[in-house]
Amino acid sequence: HTLTVLEYKGRWLPDFPREAIAGMDTFEARHDDVIVCAYPKSGTHWVWEMVRFLLAGTTDLPVIEKDEAMMEFKLPQELENLPSPRPLNTHYHFELLPEDILRKQCKVIYVTRDPRDVAVSYFNHHTKLVQYYQYNGQWPDYFRLFLSGQVDYESWFTYTKGWERGIQEHPELPVHITSYEELQADTFGGLKKLANFLGVEVDETFLIQVVKKCSFEVMGATKGAQEVFDESSSPIMYRKGKVGDWKNWFTVAQSEQFDDVFEREMVGSWAYNLYSHTKQGS
Ligand code: A3P
Fold it and tell me: Do residues 258 and 250 touch, judged by C-beta distance below 8 A?
C-alpha cells in the first residue's frame, strides 16, 4: 500500500490547494505573528488553542479549528485577513519555513512528541481519512511507511533533526520548545511558560480557565463534534489524547526495530535525551 500525497518540488505534502502551498514561498510575516510548529500528530491543535486564548486574553472566542490558521493550507489572502497578532501553525520542516519568519524574528513554538505515539496517532489519522489518502493498510504495513518516512511531511527523524539544527543555527530566532508529554504531565505549568514566552500578562484564574477549555474532553466535545466523522463516529483529531498508547499497538519486534532506527538516527540529539530512556530494552 502507498499513501496518496502531493509531490510538490520534491516534497511530500497532503493534497492542499497549490496556491496555498506556493504562498509559503512568498509569505509575508508580521512582527507579532506567533507560529506553532510541529510534526503532524504531536499536539498542534492543543497548543494552537492555548496560544489563541493567550494572545486574545480571553477564552470567549468562536469555536474554530487550527486549520483556519494553517499556513500551507490557507490561501495567502485568507492568512492576510486574519487580525494581528496571528496565531499561525505549520508542519513544515525548519529549512522550508518562509524566510520572512526568520527575517522578522517571529515567535516560534516548537512542539515535539514521542515518535511512537506519533506513529500510532498518524496511522489512525491516515486510515480514518481513507478517502483523502486512499490508504487502507493495516498497522504492520503503516509501521514500515512511518519508519521510512513515506508519509506526508515525510520522516519524523529528518523533521526533528532538522528543527534541532535550525534552532541551533538561528539563535536570534525566539523559539519556545515544549513537548506533548510535558504538557500532559503539567498542563498548567506548561501554559504558564508559554504565557511568559509570549510576554502576555495573565492571572492564575485565567490560566486555569484556559487549561479547562483546552482539555481533551472540552476540545473533543466542541471542536471534535464539528468534524466530519468516520464510520465509527470517533473524532479524528481528538482520538485518545494519552501518553504511551504505542504500547497497545507495537509488538515486541516492532518496538525493537523502532529502537534500532531511533538509536541510529537520533543519538546525540535532544529528542534522544527526551525519549531514549523509555526504549523497550531500557
Ligand atoms: P492521539 O491520536 O494519540 O489521541 P495534532 O493536533 O498535531 O494533529 O495531534 C493530534 C493528537 O493530539 C491526537 O493524539 C489527539 O487526540 C491529541 N490531542 C488533541 N487535542 C488534545 C488535547 N486538548 N489534549 C490532549 N491531547 C490532544
Answer: yes
Beta partners for residue 109, in sequence order: 36, 176
Per annotation, catalytic residue among 1, 31, 45, 91: 91
Q: What's the CA gap between 229 and 261, in Å, rounded?
A: 34
Active site residue 126: no
ipTM of the predicted structure?
0.99
**SS3 call for 197:** helix
pLDDT tens digit sequence for 10-29: 999 999 999 999 999 999 99
pLDDT by residue (tens digit) across 104-125?
999 999 999 999 999 999 999 9
Among 249, 243, 263, CA closest to 127: 249
C-alpha of residue 246 to centroid of ligand 1, in Å: 14
For a pocket test of ligand 1, which of 210, 237, 242, 250 has the largest count of ligand atoms closer than 8 A to its C-beta?
237
